[in-house]
Write a structure and sequence with these properties.
The protein is built from eleven helices and eleven strands. With 320 residues, the chain is an alpha/beta fold. The chain has two domains: 211 residues, Spore Coat Polysaccharide Biosynthesis Protein SpsA, Chain A (Alpha-Beta Complex); 94 residues, no CATH class.
Length: 320
């Protein structure tokens, strides 16, 4: 498979405290023949991430390192990289993830007239041997419209907001599309959603070689109530891009409710811990949320009862 367009690509890496993995990420990007430049934006790391990236840059002129003076989050770091990018295409790579050889070639071969081209993530645990993607030639390609994309972010299979596509830079420039720097959770979902609403053609294929490394304590797993609130409300920004069809409007409303359920669950946990009865009661704000919270509370009660039963069994077994 050969692309019919200029496949020159800028790989952008927003990096924060990833000294243990930044070299692997950078070298995997530079190893792609389509990579004409790689831009690492260090988001004011407290470890040696920036120093290690600059050391790598001295050995390869295609690598540029930008240091943020203050931590602004991945959206701000990616925006800095997008402003500096020069290639016709940009590819998103997280600092603790990496590409397998040949990934960009496959995505460009799929692209045709698409503006966003993504592959299914290969999820692995850190230090686990990475699997090889299945043959890209035999995999179906799925165009994603706005409703399909939003629906794919509600726990129905793959969470499409985590995809890391290659993106046509002309499209970003034409629409002045950038990440919302207020978001530290769901910034990719918001960015892709607004891009599709603006007319961006988003194509999803099977596995092509993006390794998504799952690590305990990663930033994506650590979010606050405010992070969830802003993610919930970003659906209003997507809906405001243009008039929506009935299907699109209903799907975005479902996603907002889905995120609000997660937010109210977090608020309920905080209220219970602080013995704030009023705040706890306020989380049951709608029938949808009340049903979700009731299920989660029942799950927690069941897990606690199982734990108590196991402890009683262990205590009995220890008796002489």
């Amino acid at each position: 498979m050969r692309p019919k367009h200029d496949a020159s690509t800028t790989v952008i890496i927003a990096a924060y405290n990833v000294a243990a993995t930044i070299e692997r990420a950078v070298l995997s990007a530079l190893a792609q023949p389509e990579t004409t430049e790689t831009i690492v934006v260090d988001d004011a790391s407290k470890d040696a991430t920036a120093d290690l990236a600059e050391q790598l840059a001295r050995a390869d002129a295609r690598l540029k390192v930008i240091r943020m003076r203050a931590n602004g989050g991945p959206a701000a770091a990616r925006n800095r990289a997008l402003e500096a990018a020069q290639s016709p295409w940009v590819a998103i790579l997280d600092g603790d993830d990496y590409f397998l050889p040949g990934r960009l070639a496959v995505l460009h071969a799929w692209a045709n007239d698409s503006d966003f081209v993504a592959d299914t993530l290969i999820r692995v645990v850190e230090n686990e041997a990475h699997p090889h993607p299945v043959s890209a030639d035999s995999q179906p390609l799925q165009p994603l419209d706005l409703a399909a994309f939003v629906r794919g972010n509600m726990g129905e299979g793959l969470d499409l907001g985590f995809l890391k596509p290659i993106i046509r830079r002309d499209f970003l420039q034409q629409h002045a599309l950038r990440y919302d720097e207020r978001l530290r959770l769901g910034e990719d979902y918001d960015f892709y959603g607004r891009g599709i609403a603006l007319g961006g053609r988003f194509l999803l294929g099977g596995q092509a070689g993006y390794i998504s490394v799952m690590r305990p304590g990663s930033i994506s797993m650590d979010h606050s109530e405010e992070d969830l609130r802003r993610m919930r409300d970003c659906d209003d920004d997507i809906a405001a891009v243009r008039p929506l069809t009935t299907r699109e409007r209903q799907t975005i409303r479902r996603h907002k409710i889905h995120t609000d359920c997660r937010l109210q669950w977090r608020r309920l946990i905080t209220a219970v811990r602080t013995h704030d009865i009023g705040a706890a009661a306020s989380t049951f704000r709608s029938p949808h949320v009340a049903g979700y919270l009731a299920v989660r509370l029942a799950e927690q009660a069941w897990l606690r009862s199982i734990g108590r039963a196991q402890r009683r069994t262990e205590t009995t077994a220890d008796r002489p």
